[in-house]
Amino acid sequence: MKSPFTGGEAVLVTETRKTVFRKEEYEYTHLCYQCVDTQETFTTTQVDTFNTSQIYNSYRTAHGIPYPDEIKEIRSRYMLSALKMSRILGFGDNQYRLYENGEIPNVANGRVLKAIQSPKTFETFVDAAKNVLSDDEYMKIKTRLEECEDRSSMDGLIHKLVFGDNIRSRYNGYAMLSISKLKNVLLFFIEKFNGVFVTQMNKILFYTDFLSYRENGQAITGLSFKAIQYGPVPNRWDRVYSLIDDIDQIEVEGKNGNVGNKLVSDMPCDISSFSNEQLSILEKVYDTFKNDNSVSISYKSHEEPAWIDNQGTHSFIDFKYAFSLKAI
């Protein structure tokens, strides 16, 4: 980064700050650039957006308010327009769309949005709003809700086994907890590397999520990471790789004679499931580590403060360590 004051170099600096949002105090990692020559600080639009997003994330998590991607997913699952969702829920006509685009709901509306993630709960709103629906619309929605309910039990079980009871927080980079998104991240790297050893994938996922948080203010996979003896790894990594459909593990003997488990799949990655920003992160991680093997990428992860500061207690790693990444 070039300094606007001198044209010389500027470095990214971080500090812990507190601020008040909607009468509540929140702590966040404040980013800014500092001119090397004058010591003056400045920000960019991207940095300002990131700083405020941390505060908004904390507010949403504190009050159980869904994030924009979750609000979009609710409507997509029920196959309804934003206008129709607004009318069923008793919001203003444009309100649901505004929430999808990032406007933060008040606590009351936020709790409504959280509740209707359950098909059974949403059905009560549909029944109450029958007067704003045609008979055909009403029956189609009821049928769709039955289909969603049939799938939700098994989907919910796998979700719980992989993510546990986690909510979006600083320990998973405030990412959406989505099995589908996680699966496509795995498929992306399996396809790129022509199969990925488990140890290697553990580190790739760490760098993917922490880089994404550093660049975009949000991780991708929804996984939390622990600092264990052999480096940072996803929590429940064994379940992650064994429970997701279409991904298999095979035993492969390495050049040194050691046998390791390799993740393989015949399923192509659905690139459309990623935003442009997410895809850019995935490509950057691949380009950075495409010549590494399990051993070399593990060595690199042992140089990261995220691991060094937490490995003694095998603690979960706070995503604030994204700003001290060394290898990427």
UniProtKB/TrEMBL annotation:
GO terms for molecular function: DNA binding. It comes from the Bacteria. Gene3D superfamilies: lambda repressor-like DNA-binding domains. Residues 202-307 form the Antitoxin SocA-like Panacea domain. This is DUF4065 domain-containing protein. It comes from Parabacteroides merdae.
